[in-house]
Amino acid sequence: MKCLTVYLMPRPTRVKIVERYLLLTFCLVCTFPLVSQNKYVTLAVYAWEPLLYDDINNPGPLAEIVSGSLEAVGYRVTLVGLPFARVQAELYSGNVDLSPGVTITDERKEKLWFSTPILYLRMGFVFKKDGIKYKSLSDLASLTGGVMRGTFWEKILADNGLKYETVVDQNQNIQKLISNHINYACLPEVIAFYLLRANGEDISKYEFGLYRLDPQPVGISRATKIKGLAANFERGLSIFKQTKKYQNIMNSLQFE
Question: Can you name the CATH fold of 40-118+217-252?
């Protein structure tokens, strides 16, 4: 007569049950972003066409990159449209959490963290052909430039003793250049020629003088109430860069 041997598994102890529960909880947590899904962040946009628009329904490619990166780690983004000079003040106070296209300066580093660049721009001067022979800033000594208020250009021109006038958005600069109220405008090349076309100008009548290749990071308020925002944005940017949406945005920027 054959005997049937049956092996009975021991009943799990309370300790084993707790260990399994903790392991299951850990796996579920790791499946989702580490940032709470109901954490809101305020992103400021301003008129800097075609990279940024002060329209919260159509904020432009830079804002789309920032929003996509934040959403990749669980943030919900609230957009606000402001003049650039006010964007800086709101970042300093913490009323706005972050904004793209903020150039790094020593003054700003005291109030803001800066992300890794999301792209690079050719920054310099646009002027009418045969009007300026530009090789260095000294070639602009007898001329008047146009600057968007609150940008780093004010300090650069002032430190070099150059005359300039300020406006609240770049299209005003372009219109003043067209009407010969200024001799040159200070802005990125892609924005300069976009605005000239938008104003019906023949861009073959204009030239661009390169001042520098400018990294474009995101400025993040040091006064923000959201802990870990800078680190989480970097993590989100790395994730978002692997998406098709990011590639489509970059492909739409013909200068890239």
Answer: D-Maltodextrin-Binding Protein; domain 2 (3.40.190)
**CB-count burial class (<10 Å; 0-12, 13-18, 19+) for 150:** middle
Is residue 222 predicted with pLDDT exceeding 90?
yes
Distance CA 142, CA 23 (A): 72
79-117 pLDDT, tens digit per residue, is 999 998 899 999 999 999 999 989 898 999 999 999 999
The first and second tokens of residue 170, run together, are 């770049």
Q: 40-118+217-252 with 121-214: one CATH topology?
A: yes
Global pTM value: 0.70
- What dotted CATH number matches 121-214? 3.40.190.10
Nearest CA among 210, 211, 153, 143 for reference residue 177: 143
Centre a 10 Å sphere on the Cβ of residue 175 and count the other Cβ atoms it contains. 16
β-sheet bridge partners, residue 3: none
